[in-house]
Amino acid sequence: MKKKIAWVTDSTAHITEELQQHPDVYVVPMSIIFGEDIYEDGLTVTPDNLYTKISEYPELPTTSQPPIGKFVTLYEELQEKYEQVIMIHVSSLISGTYAGSRQAAEMVGIKYHAIDSKAMSYAMTYMLQDGLQLQEEGKTVEEIVTYIEGMISALENYILLGNLKQMYKGGRMNGVQFFLGTMLNIKPIITIKEGVFQMFDKVRTEKRAVQRLMDQFASAYEKVAINRLAILHGNRLQDAQKWKEMLVEKYPSLAIDICPISSTIGVHAGEGTLAVLWFNK
């Protein structure tokens, strides 16, 4: 007898230990390319050793979506074990992963529901966690998918980039933004909105940037009941913990997760990145 739902995502999501151990969750890794050497995000390169590799290598690495063949192989295996697949992927406007995953599912002929998260990282983690919880509660696949899709528009996220050069060379930032950040010493605050990177604000110091983000959360918290928040970092655990301490002091009932950004995201955002996200619902 086939199991009901297989959950598929990519390595831009933060895969918690619980998700790693879940028998129905499958993660397809992105590729990180240093010259002629290709690494698999989360498998042969991790956030712990990524930045060391970057510092040792003369050129910045590049990233690539998973080959469609990896998705085909996975869906052929899942077709034998599951009735259908729910796939949650990084924004389709940032990566071709979502399109490749759908194309592979069509080729195999497996029944699927594709969700374009229009986000990345812990936003996708929360979507997976909530979906699995709803499944445990006995919700139908249609109810689960509808709920997760409703989360997309409720996401609020802000990113303090650690390395503007990497974001610019990776094609995620235009020349004007790069000039402002490097030549004028302005700290740009980036957000992912409608699935693409957008400039949210520009401030002079990181201290002011942090206060800006705290103010944003305070404003959101006054309007809706927010019960969880994620702080993401590129090799800045101590600073992420300081952010958590500031938030816990003011919002003691708030559940706060801290995690490193994935290696794929780290290639573009750079070491030193700090970000925060939550859902306004």
TrEMBL record:
Gene3D superfamilies: 3.30.1180.10, 3.40.50.10170. Signal peptide: none annotated. GO terms for molecular function: lipid binding. Keywords: Lipid-binding. The keyword rRNA-binding does not apply. It holds the Pfam family DegV. This is Protein DegV. The gene is degV.
